[in-house]
Amino acid sequence: MRTIIVVSGPINAGKTTIGRALAKAIDGAVFIDGDDHDAPEDAPLALRIEAGLQRLSDEIAGNTARWLVIAYPLRNEDHERLLDVAQTRDARLLTVTLAPPLEVCLSDRGSRVLDDGERARICEMYTEGYHQRAFSDLVVSAAPSVDVAVNEITAWLNDVLTEL
C-alpha cells in the first residue's frame, strides 16, 4: 500500500529539513516540499495555501511512488482534504507533527534568518495549534537533532507498519 507521510508543524519547526532526511532514510521515498508552488511569495496567504494544497493533492493523486514524504503545515481542513485524496488513491496518510518549544521556532537556525512577519506568524501558528493537532499520528515535541528525529520517526513507522 502506498504511504504518504506529512511532516507538519509551525514555521521553522524543521519540516523541510526533517522531511528531506526522512525521505532519504526510506528506500524509494520521494520528498515534496509543500511550499514549492506557483503562487508568488507576496500573494495573499489564502492564495499561497490553496496553491500549495492543490499541488500536494495533485502529487498524491498522480505520483506513483510507494512512499511520499511531504513537508507542509496542516490545518484541520487541509488534513481532511489530503486524507480524502489519499483514500481515493488507496493510500495511507500518516501525519508527523513537529512541536519544538516556541522559543526554538522563533530563533534563527542554520542559514535561516527570520523576519518580523515570520516571527509573528509563528506565534499565530502556536496560538492556532499547529504544534498539537488532534489528527497527528506522531508528535515530536522536543527539538532533537535531525538524525534523532528521523530515527524516532522511522522507529515509529516500523511499529505502525508491523501492527497493520
Detailed description of the structure:
- With 164 residues, this protein is an alpha/beta fold.
- It has a single domain (2-163), classed as 3-Layer(aba) Sandwich (Rossmann fold), CATH 3.40.50.
- The chain is 46% helix and 16% strand.
- It has helices at 15-25, 45-62, 76-88, 102-105, 116-127, 146-163; strands spanning 2-8, 30-33, 67-71, 91-98, 138-140.
- Helix 1 packs across helix 6 (146-163) and helix 2 runs parallel beside helix 3 (76-88).
Brief descriptors of the model:
single chain; 164 residues; alpha/beta; Rossmann fold; 5-stranded parallel beta sheet; 5 strands
**What proportion of the residues is helical, as a percent range?**
40-55%
Number of strands: 5
Extract low-pLDDT stretches.
none
Strand content: 15-25%
CATH class: Alpha Beta
Question: Briefly, what is this?
Answer:
By secondary structure, this protein is α/β, with parallel strands linked by helices.
Q: How are the elements arranged and paired?
A:
Elements: E1 2-8, H1 15-25, E2 30-33, H2 45-62, E3 67-71, H3 76-88, E4 91-98, H4 102-105, H5 116-127, E5 138-140, H6 146-163
Helix pairs in contact: 1-6, 2-3
